[in-house]
């Protein structure tokens, strides 16, 4: 077996040339004390950082390529929710040991998705530590003043979500199962967990249309409550309208659609007069966009059930896991 690479060799081999360089905006990448970014005139930088810890956020034995791809996609989803275009990211890696196979898999997964989503690795840090830990910080650009925020929803606005709800939550129960024991439907669910689709094109297209937006990481009820709090409004949802994902044996339970995390779909609000534009966007981008309720002046989050009863919805929901 070859000798373990030094920290410098490790960076050179796997991380020095990763992703797509936006030459107009990245003046300096990996290798110096700092990377240098050059936002264009009239742009704002959008930043978001997330840490994933082995054993907490993903199983220790998870495929490193999937770990990398998911970590990047989850961060990109924050840029999507802001309406920002990805430019660059940094990666702080804490490793218990230098495992060449793990690093190769990790870097190749990261490179594939960085390429696909048009982002460049411009720096990071590499340290030894007991627990495998990844911190990614993504940077994107948005025209000044045009970012989509959690504040801005107004009474009467429609509430919409992209894609389907609850698939990733349905997959969490499968994470520790041996792959050979999974049905095709279960494998498909797991893919939805590992490879969420950051809704970058949709987020950028919603600039100037959506009144508020965020991405769904902790479940619809809890995340929508952030929009309500930031905007000083309430909401009424229609149970029948919720686009429930197919689980392994039928549509996911209502509780999973409302409270299941990790879907990374966008939830946004818009004035009813913009409905035709929103529908057209969904068609153009080939993304299902579903109206699920209305913003109200009265605070609180309510849901109209199939039985036509109106119930208050607990934002925290129950913890399924
Ligand atoms: P310093 O000691 O000045 O912080 P380092 O030796 O930590 O520099 O890193 C050297 C260069 O390699 C820096 O440009 C840094 O951003 C980059 N780097 C270190 N680790 C990583 C990583 N995991 N991914 C990408 N770039 C990295
Ligand atoms: Mg350093």
3D architecture notes:
With about 325 residues, this protein is α+β, with helices and mostly antiparallel strands. It has two domains: about 5-145, 60s Ribosomal Protein L30, Chain: A, CATH 3.30.1330; about 160-310, PurM-like C-terminal domain (Phosphoribosyl-aminoimidazole Synthetase, Chain A, domain 2, Alpha-Beta Complex), CATH 3.90.650.10. It is built from nine helices and 15 strands. The strands form four sheets. The chain has a seven-stranded mixed beta sheet with strand order 8-12-7-13-9-14-15. Strands 3-6-4-5 form a four-stranded mixed beta sheet. It has a two-stranded antiparallel sheet with strand order 1-2. Helix 2 (about 65-80) runs parallel beside helix 3 (about 100-115). The model has no long low-confidence stretch (mean pLDDT about 95). The structure holds adenosine-5'-diphosphate (ADP) and magnesium ion. Adenosine-5'-diphosphate binds near residues 31 and 121.
Determine the mean pLDDT: 95
Identify the CATH architecture of the largest domain: Alpha-Beta Complex
Distance between the termini: 41 Å
In DSSP terms, counting alpha (H) and pi (I) runs of 4 or more, how many helices? 9
Tell me the count of domains.
2
- CATH-derived topology of the largest domain: Phosphoribosyl-aminoimidazole Synthetase, Chain A, domain 2
Query: Any low-confidence stretches, pLDDT <50, length ≥5?
Result: none
Q: Tell me the major beta sheet.
A: 7 strands, mixed
CATH class identity of the largest domain? Alpha Beta
Features:
321 residues; alpha+beta; 60s Ribosomal Protein L30, Chain: A; Phosphoribosyl-aminoimidazole Synthetase, Chain A, domain 2; 2 domains; 7-stranded mixed beta sheet; 4-stranded mixed beta sheet; 27% strand; globular; binds adenosine-5'-diphosphate; binds magnesium ion
């Amino acid at each position: 077996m070859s000798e373990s690479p030094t920290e410098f060799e490790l960076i050179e081999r796997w991380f020095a040339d990763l992703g797509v360089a936006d030459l107009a905006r990245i003046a300096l990448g990996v290798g110096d004390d700092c990377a240098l970014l050059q936002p264009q005139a009239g742009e704002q930088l959008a930043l978001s950082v997330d840490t994933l810890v082995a054993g907490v956020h993903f199983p220790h034995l998870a495929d490193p390529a999937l770990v990398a791809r998911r970590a990047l996609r989850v961060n990109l989803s924050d840029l999507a929710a802001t309406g920002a275009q990805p430019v660059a990211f940094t990666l702080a890696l804490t490793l218990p040991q230098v495992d060449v196979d793990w690093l190769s898999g990790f870097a190749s997964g990261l490179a594939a998705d960085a390429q696909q989503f048009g982002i460049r690795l411009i720096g990071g840090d590499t340290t030894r530590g007991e627990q495998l830990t990844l911190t990614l910080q993504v940077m994107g650009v948005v025209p000044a003043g045009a970012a989509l925020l959690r504040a801005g929803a107004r009474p009467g606005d429609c509430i919409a979500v992209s894609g389907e709800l609850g698939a990733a939550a349905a997959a969490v129960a499968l994470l520790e199962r041996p792959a050979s024991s999974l049905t095709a439907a279960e494998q498909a669910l797991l893919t939805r967990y590992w490879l969420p689709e950051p809704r970058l094109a949709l987020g950028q297209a919603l600039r100037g249309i959506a009144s508020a937006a965020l991405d769904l990481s902790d479940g619809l009820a809890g995340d929508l409550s952030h929009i309500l709090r930031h905007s000083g409004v309430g909401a009424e949802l229609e149970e029948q309208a919720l686009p429930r994902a197919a689980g392994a044996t039928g549509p996911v339970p209502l509780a999973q659609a409302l409270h299941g995390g990790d879907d990374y779909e966008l939830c946004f609000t818009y004035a009813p007069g913009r409905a035709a534009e929103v529908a057209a966007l969904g068609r153009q981008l080939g993304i299902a966009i579903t109206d699920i309720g209305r913003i109200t002046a009265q605070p609180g989050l309510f849901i109209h059930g199939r039985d036509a009863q109106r119930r208050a919805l607990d934002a925290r929901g129950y913890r399924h896991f």
